[in-house]
Design brief:
Elements lengths: L2 E13 L6 E13 L3 E5 L6 H8 L7 E6 L2 E2 L5 H11 E5 L10 H11 L4 H15 L14 H13 L5 E5 L7 H16 L3 E6 L2 H4 L4 E6 L2 E7 L5 H19 L1
Parallel strand pairs: 3-8, 3-9, 6-7, 7-8
Antiparallel strand pairs: 1-2, 1-4, 4-5, 9-10
Helix pairs in contact: 3-5, 4-5, 5-6
Length: 253
């Protein structure tokens, strides 16, 4: 597999608005992701995982260090070009779906292609098989407020995939879903990955992380451990993640 994402010596320092003190959100983050991998990032609130995701999403810039998608250095992307870069190379799935209630499901999904001025026949050619694969073909003329949470998340995934992104970024994608719907969504992510989609998911859920191939643990702005699935099934990997978290918390105590 070829290298898709490189994160090297990345630091992010903020200045506190109230005290003026420097806050080290990320401290020398190093990892890589190969094309076709499915990686989960775990960490408690305040660990730096959301800050890291924002940097990879080009929504913010690191204080120092390198983030690179193939041969594209994020530090060289101008602010006015960032939106086009995200649309052309990255897909996003959020906890709260971020769908537009005044747009139909179809229009929500096609919006990124409309913004990039993709010809309509090409939009339809992408939409039809994607909607069928996600099981939402019969929902295209409905509006988001008419759908269940699980259906809305499938629509959000379709919108993320319609541009055929190199990297799919998922931020707590099961956070607003019940356990049954969450499991269906995670199985869907596995199928997408089996079909070659590279996925980077941020989550605090061990169950969600157990569906990935590799788990990175972030604490105090640093990657301090990682686990590989290997030949384990989801349940076995979940137990390994839980045991690791227990050991790490015990060590911390």
């Amino acid at each position: 597999m070829s290298r898709l994402l490189t994160v090297k010596n990345v630091k992010k320092v903020y200045q506190s608005r109230f005290s003026g003190q420097l806050v080290h959100a990320l401290r020398q983050i190093d990892f890589t992701i190969d094309e076709g991998e499915y990686v989960a990032i775990m960490g408690e609130s305040g660990s730096g995982k959301s800050t890291l995701l924002n940097l990879i999403a080009t929504l913010d810039k690191p204080t120092s260090g390198l983030i690179q998608l193939r041969d594209m250095d994020f530090n060289r992307i101008l602010e006015k070009e960032a939106a086009n870069f995200r649309r052309d190379h990255l897909g996003f799935v959020f906890q709260d779906f971020n769908l537009l209630d005044t747009f139909s499901v179809k229009d929500n999904i096609l919006l990124p292609l409309v913004l990039s001025r993709t010809p309509y026949p090409k939009m339809e050619a992408r939409l039809t098989p994607l909607a069928a694969a996600l099981g939402i073909s019969e929902l295209l003329e409905k509006y988001p407020y008419e759908l269940s949470g699980g259906q809305q998340q499938r629509v959000a995934i379709a919108r993320a995939l319609i541009t055929q992104p190199e990297l799919l970024l998922a931020d707590e994608p099961t956070g607003a879903l019940d356990s049954k719907t969450s499991n269906q969504l995670l199985q869907l992510f596995e199928r997408l990955n089996d079909n070659g989609q590279t996925i980077l998911m941020v989550t605090h859920s061990s169950i969600a992380a157990s569906h990935a191939q590799r788990v990175l643990f972030i604490k105090d702005g640093q990657v301090f451990h990682q686990l590989y699935r290997g030949k384990k099934n989801n349940q076995q990997f979940l137990e390994t993640i839980a045991e690791t978290m227990t050991a790490l918390l015990t060590k911390e105590g």
